[in-house]
Design a protein that fits this description.
Layout lengths: L1 H7 L5 H47 L5 E4 L4 E4 L9 H10 L2 H16 L8 E9 L6 E11 L12 E11 L3 H21 L3 H18 L2
Antiparallel strand pairs: 1-2, 3-4, 4-5
Helix pairs in contact: 2-4
């Protein structure tokens, strides 16, 4: 009886039991910190690279005549204006743009990412796309780097690879196209007003607006 009572109060193995419980938890916390230290710099580098690529490609499609050399990573203007595309060729190139722009986006992303100090591991894929190809063109560059995890945690449901996906966009700046679209919108509004005789309605709305301005003291 005394022996059983002594075993009940024996605390010699408590440290071993506590270590057995806490060790897996501490390893998971450590693995999480390692993953975070890899994820954040890699994502920041991809964000910088994709935004740079989107901006460069959007500049080429704008009316600034500014081009980007992916080999030297520099902007330049075409010295011979005869080499510039006319508006019709530019529209056609914008519509059919695909593989060449995608390849150029991938080269730019790779070079910009390599210029950083972060360690690059895993496979990199770059996707290129255009939204609204003729009006309000938006360049979209998406980069995905699939990083292998340094610690195998598949036994607790963690994947062996971590995909990091970053998307950047840039709007094509085209002043002539913007003015043209505004002119079309103004002409359309004038046509609607004249066709449906909405001039008196707009004048009434304007008068109501003046009344509110007087009330509010604007």
């Amino acid at each position: 009886m005394k022996m059983m009572k002594g075993l009940w109060y024996d605390q010699n193995a408590l440290a071993v039991v506590e270590a057995a419980i806490l060790f897996p938890i501490m390893m998971m916390i450590f693995a999480g910190l390692v993953l975070l230290s890899m994820f954040m710099p890699t994502r920041a580098a991809l964000q910088r690279a994709t935004q740079y690529a989107a901006t460069a490609l959007a500049s080429e499609k704008s009316d600034t005549w500014l081009f980007y050399d992916a080999d030297t990573m520099t902007y330049y203007w075409e010295s011979d204006k005869r080499a510039l595309d006319n508006v019709y060729v530019s529209i056609i190139k914008t519509i059919i743009s695909g593989k060449d722009d995608a390849d150029k986006a991938e080269i730019i992303v790779q070079k910009v990412e390599q210029s950083g100090i972060s360690v690059r591991t895993g496979e990199l894929t770059v996707d290129f796309g255009i939204v609204n190809r003729l009006v309000y063109k938006e360049i979209i560059v998406t980069a995905t780097r699939t990083m292998p995890l340094p610690v195998d945690l598949s036994f607790i449901g963690f994947p062996k690879e971590l995909p990091i996906v970053v998307t950047s966009t840039a709007i094509v700046q085209n002043g002539d196209e913007f003015v043209r679209n505004i002119d079309i919108a103004v002409d359309f509004v004038k046509y609607i007003v004249e066709k449906y005789e909405l001039g008196e309605v707009f004048e009434s709305v304007h008068e109501i607006g003046d009344v509110f301005k007087d009330i509010l003291g604007w």
